[in-house]
Amino acid sequence: xxxxxxxxxxxxxxxxxxxxxxxxxxxxxxxxxxxxxxxxxxxxxxxxxxxxxxxxxxxxxxxxxxxxxxxxxxxxxxxxxxxxxxxxxxxxxxxxxxxxxxxxxxxxxxxxxxxxxxxxxxxxxxxxxxxxxxxxxxxxxxxxxxxxxxxxxxxxxx
Length: 158
Description:
Layout: H1 2-28, H2 42-71, H3 83-89, H4 91-110, H5 112-126, H6 132-152
């Protein structure tokens, strides 16, 4: 029961995040004109729509499971949880989505390397990772990605 309620809340947050990706993509990606449907804008928009569809399926599935459990008269006295309590328990999900939006905004302003390193460090810290070795590995991977795009693929990153 508790897992289905958490699935419902997570589905709602993911749907909002997918909608935000879909809406914010044109602001972050420049297109050639009104008729330009392919190119750099296509993949982020596809991911936004896919996230909306998958989260809608999660919402529907968890709502059906919750209504089925209530119809079977399964008592909720074991652990009643309000929406506010669920938010308090799942605050990391909201913070992670906020960090991803912050990353999108910071990417163009301060560049790939700095924004990626800062966001990665914040996410690792938020998820409870305290080993310095793992932070260093992530920073090395970010640097290798940067080198791969700029030197090998000749793609200019901000």
